[in-house]
Design brief:
It is a single chain. It is built from 14 helices and 41 strands. The strands form ten sheets. The protein has a nine-stranded parallel sheet with strand order 25-24-22-18-14-13-12-27-26. A six-stranded antiparallel sheet has the order 28-29-30-35-32-33. Helix 7 runs antiparallel to helix 8. The structure holds alpha-D-glucopyranose.
């Protein structure tokens, strides 16, 4: 049951795709207080209540005990004290005696105090009188989330190759660098489907340009890579360089497509290229114009992009810079003491991503000028919408890979996200595990973190453990920051062990891809906390470091340095699969309850539910070489089980075509195992306990 309530005069953010009529009267469960242009919602939390949601937020799966902000932020240091990351995903769901969720659809700043000030109260402060609020109640938490997902529409599905292993680094300077990366993967037998091109590929950080000295004959390079089954994925940044000799800049100025100051001049923000203008993605014409520019790269054979710095990130504004310089001038010659010294450092540090700048520029929405501060959380989504709308125009039948850093609910229909600039910290591997189900609740299914960590130096053991988890994340991309230790897996002594883990990913793709697409089509979560599948198990509901992956698998990743295994909670008897460094695996039935499970650094452990089996392919060097018609069915059952496998051409959008569904059947009769496929072309083997 979903109920819609309208407060004030909210704008249409584009988050919701279902049309509902608004209710009269007051919001159920929540106390509502409207004052001083704010809406405050409060709800008591009982001892048993778990609070889920908030998508790409910091901290746990259960959000209780901390506070969070809807304020899309370019913050590269995701320490525990942080309250805002790159997305505004304003959906929270409470599960306890009752099960309900609330979605606050507004671009405004929101403060979610989830038992932080008072452990027994959730208090939500919306800094605007205008919002559409959806209240969802159901008999269980899974239904609450599914109804919410139905409300916001089907999630984005990338091409199949985006389920392959992807390599990225800020610092690949030339075609030669990228060739080396590919060659090193291929020669070491490390599968690879994509290499990302970070800002260094551009001509002076100008969007939609390619430096033709470092990347001569780029179109031929793209084809050369394609022949090797490698997709190149260039980055596109929000800021357009101010440069009279740059056509994108000139066109934007001539047509009035950039964000304006109050006096009508174009707002200037410093980003990678120095001074830039931000396209006003709220104007349909500007979206169309910017979106068309992607064609420059798609025409050369590019079929994937990542949109970045689109919160938008602002190193400085001219206004902020001037004010800070004046301040610093005033402090010149002073004897800097306790206050004035920190005033100096604070003034300089405060130039970047200063919220004061959000009042220095305006968007045009339906002809009306609206300050950025009122729309901030929607900016990245609209940039990505510009790209997605363009891809629809270019070829409505073909899927493109699209990732965005900044997001708002609704953008999940156009694109995936990566979780931004994490660090090479063990705690960020754990954060990655916890963020995945919360993101799935909010519609973001094609997602993953920078594997190995973006900032700081990685270590081979961290990278390996991270990959062992990322084997299961739809986006499996190794990415690192300029200046950090090299992080491609072949850089490390035990590259064969890395190769083996990535080869496991390819073996699992028939299952992972099938579960992913079915989750999208059924508005289900691909990653779920154990509580969703075992709500009556009082231990399972509290587990934060194990996840269900699709309908048949549970994972319990190792996320501590030097650990040689971990305690795992099994809510029921399951089949433990231990994937070994020689590419073979061992299986063992494990009882319900807590067990210590050993997992050496180069071993991957996962669990298959009783009564289930999963399809495994033979490994391959790329998804293009993967044979989805030769499968081994691995599982544990008493008598009979079916698996509905989704498998398509990997690039078109006919998701409902019945030919994409194959029913696989295993029948166990004492020791005799027989297997069947509804598609006679599928060759089957079985490994059933
Ligand atoms: C931002 C992105 C990061 C990228 C860097 C340089 O920090 O989040 O992924 O490598 O910019 O473009």
């Amino acid at each position: 049951m979903i109920k819609k309530y309208i407060f004030g005069k909210p704008m249409n953010t584009g988050a919701v795709s279902q049309k509902l009529s608004a209710e009269e009267g007051s919001l159920p469960v929540f106390g509502t207080d409207i004052s001083e242009n704010k809406i405050n919602l409060t709800c008591p939390l009982s001892e048993r209540d778990i609070v889920y949601g908030l998508g790409e937020a910091n901290r746990g799966i259960n959000k209780r005990g901390w506070h969070y902000e809807a304020k899309n932020s370019d913050d590269p240091v995701h320490t525990e004290n942080k309250t805002a990351l790159y997305g505004a995903h304003n959906f929270v769901a409470v599960s306890g005696c009752e099960h309900f969720g609330i979605f606050i659809d507004t671009p405004a700043y929101i403060h979610f105090d989830i038992g932080y000030s008072d452990p027994d109260v959730m208090s939500i402060d919306i800094h605007s009188p205008d919002a559409v609020i959806y209240f969802i109640a159901a008999d269980d938490i899974s239904t609450v989330v599914r109804e919410f997902r139905q409300l916001i529409g089907k999630s984005y599905i990338p091409p199949l190759w985006a389920f392959g292993y992807q390599q990225s680094r800020w610092g690949y300077q030339s075609a030669e660098d990228i060739r080396n990366v590919v060659e090193n993967h291929r020669s070491a037998g490390i599968p690879l489907d994509a290499v990302y091109m970070d800002i260094d590929y551009m001509d002076g950080y100008r969007d939609f340009t390619v430096d033709n000295v470092k990347f001569p004959e780029f179109d031929k390079f793209v084809s050369e890579m394609k022949e090797n089954n490698i997709h190149l994925v260039p980055i596109i940044d929000a800021g357009v360089k101010i440069d009279e000799n740059y056509d994108v800049y000139r066109e934007g100025v001539e047509n009035g497509y950039f964000c304006k100051r109050a006096d009508g001049s174009n707002f200037v923000a410093g980003v990678w290229p120095g001074r830039t203008h931000f396209p006003d993605f709220f104007m349909p014409e500007a979206r169309k114009w910017f979106g068309e520019k992607y064609r420059r790269l798609t025409d050369l054979g590019i079929d994937g992009f990542w949109n970045d710095m689109n919160e938008p990130a602002i190193f400085y504004s001219e206004e902020g810079l001037k004010e800070a310089m004046e301040h610093v001038d005033r402090l010149k010659g002073e004897n800097l003491g306790i206050d004035s010294f920190f005033e100096l450092t604070g003034t300089v540090a405060g130039i970047s991503n200063n919220v004061k700048d959000y009042d220095h520029f305006y968007h045009t929405v339906d002809g009306e000028k609206i300050p950025h501060s009122k729309l901030h959380n929607l900016y990245g989504m609209n940039m990505t919408k510009a790209a997605a709308e363009a891809f629809e125009r270019f070829d409505p039948t073909k899927r493109m890979l699209m990732l965005s850093r900044s997001s708002y609910i609704g953008m999940h229909r156009y694109s995936g996200i990566w979780t931004g600039d994490n660090c090479s910290w063990w705690s960020h591997l754990l954060l990655n595990i916890k963020q995945m189900p919360s993101l799935n609740m909010c519609g973001f299914l094609y997602t993953g973190a920078d594997v190995g960590g973006f900032g700081n130096d990685t270590t081979p053991d961290l990278l390996m453990r991270w990959l062992e988890f990322a084997v299961f994340t739809p986006l499996m991309r190794n990415h690192s920051a300029a200046g950090t230790r090299d992080q491609e897996v072949y850089r490390f002594r035990n590259s064969a062990a890395f190769a083996n883990i990535i080869r496991l990913r390819y073996r699992l793709i028939p299952y992972l891809y099938s579960e992913f697409v079915k989750s999208v089509l059924n508005d289900d979560m691909y990653f779920r906390p154990l509580a969703f599948d075992f709500p009556d198990d009082s231990i399972a509901v509290g587990v934060e470091d194990q996840l269900m992956v699709g309908n048949s698998v549970m994972i319990a990743p190792v996320y501590e340095q030097n650990a040689r295994g971990r305690i795992v909670y099994l809510p029921e008897e399951m089949l433990r699969v231990k994937y070994l460094p020689d590419g073979s695996y061992e299986t063992r039935v494990m009882p319900k309850g807590h067990s210590y499970v050993s997992a050496e650094l180069d071993e991957v452990v996962f669990f298959i539910r009783k009564g289930h089996f999963i399809p495994l392919a033979d490994s391959a060097n790329s998804t293009a070489e993967l044979n989805m018609k030769k499968l081994t069915l691995l599982g544990y059952l008493d008598y009979k089980a079916n698996y509905l496998m989704y498998s398509d051409d990997g690039e078109s959008k006919d998701y409902y075509d019945q030919n994409n569904y194959i029913t696989l059947t295993v029948i166990k009769d004492n020791r005799d195992i027989s297997v069947r496929s509804s598609d006679p072309d599928v060759e089957l083997a079985a490994d059933i306990k």
